[in-house]
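DM from R.C. (forwarded with permission)

"hey, sorry to bug you on a friday — could you get me a structure for this? deadline for the figure draft is monday and I only need the backbone to look sensible"
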Amino acid sequence: MVFTINYLSIANDSGSTPEGMALIADTHGNTWFYMMFAADVLVGVFCLQLLYTFKVLVTLASIETPPAISLPLNTDNRKASDVLGINERQQYVTSSMRGTIKHLRTQAGFFSAWRGYCASFVYYFATGSVANILHSFLGTSLPASLVIGVLSILFFARFSLAVTHIIISRPQPTWWFKRVLATPWSSARQTLPAMAHFALAQWASYKLLAIASSGESSLPIRVSMFLLSFVVNLFVVLPLWVVLVRVQASLLPDTEEAIVSFDRTFGKEVTGALSFKEAARSFKCKGWQRIMMLVGKMVVIIASIAAVMALARFAFLSFFIRDAALQ
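My reply, with the result:
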């Protein structure tokens, strides 16, 4: 969930002014400065791990379908469902964040909430590096930025497909790098339409956020661009990412078993890769409700952490400003 990391960084940077840091260093030496810096690093690392866990949860929620044994809980099937122990609210493992993490740890160990982390890190580093290299040749104009933003993602379609398969499948003895190399380009090519849609939407959200972060625009424009970027991420980027995940999941090899229950056909009469339209139409209203509930919980948790950090920083700086004034 890259867009959340951007918002978090803005909220975190808003309180760490150079003047405040200089005051702490000048008043009490470097000790308190290093303590605050270390606290920022630790909180930043914690938030990155938390955001990646959210990515794993949303990825699994994007593909999960109820087990075949589940029944519609109407009047006719009420007694049968009671005998089988089926609860409508418990059909989806991913309907609960805590339940999903518990399921992952049962199936794949304690660190399963960060499954695919190393591969994802290398993927994002590679796409960013390629984008920077292309910018050095093509410049930073708007058309060049658009082309680079899309090409840098499409270039690593094979890598992205492998990362998704690592996240949604049960643990494999094969190292992630070998799984990337073993992913056929013929499969990755079928994800290009979905990846192109996602890349365009993500580029637009980045540009809006860049305007919001720049000091050249007036405050009302910056706030408007920030809110518009959030809306684009929530209602355009996120749905397109879910569609991309479903297209990639439909290409999971038959030799690999998913870590959550999901229908490989996604409701189609024949197996095979989903098209962009098929993936979008196959995700029903209840699925979107689960995704939005997960995102809502994520926003509340991240906002709470940002608020606590801002209050702690404000109290910290206020204490030392007052102490410096007394001296």
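R.C.: lifesaver. Residues 1-16, 22-27, 83-89 have pLDDT under 50 and may be disordered.
me: no worries. The chain has one domain: 2-71+93-326.
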